[in-house]
TrEMBL record:
Gene3D superfamilies: Periplasmic binding protein-like II. This is ABC-type phosphate/phosphonate transport system periplasmic component.
Amino acid sequence: MTLNLLVAPDFAPENFPGWYMLATLLQHRSGTRLHLLMPADAREQAQMLADGLADLVYANPFDATAMIRDQGYRAFARPKAHSNEMVIATAAASPADHVEDLRPGCRIAVTDNRDVRLVGLRLLEPADLTEHDIQWEPASSYQAAARMTLNGQVDAGFFLASAYHALARITRERLKVLVESRLRDISHVLLAHPRVADADLAPLAQALLAVDPADTGDAQVLQALGLPAGFEPMEREDAEFMIDLMDTLLD
């Protein structure tokens, strides 16, 4: 059979080929054909999901929360040792050295990633800034957010930590981290649509969880993917804990 795997469009561009390498590996080991859906942005992702095209989804934690709770998706795996931390950064020449230096009316570049925005707002609490104190400047990608920050179009940018650290070295040298989160328990999640039977999912899930960082060939795939530790099972209790944590961030 063939399963369509939709990958959230918030991974670093250099990891794009890694998904095709992983799909090839999993097809060979599980006997299940995988067709990748790679939306360019959150809007295209939402349309693909609305059209019912995805059997499996590599979802960010905000989307995963809604999909599990409201649409009956079930979590079966997540990246191992790879939580969704976020960074607030400004230009290196900025007078701001801490989040407390940001003032009401400040301009912040932000992508469509709601989980990053939620965590970022929590990190801004020491500055007594709420969502309504900020002029939000939409960025099409984390690379675009970095350009806007460096060009002085905004006072700071919100970044997924893995995307920030994957920016070109010359770009990071011109930026300054104001704060980086340490939540640990929020991550992207692999979800299965309710229509996917356990018997159809099991071979693929087993193959995914067996991808071994200690194996040279497997390690090359995981490095290309930007997930060097591989994947681990995600139980229902783990998913519920993450959902509770996301609810706390929303409050």
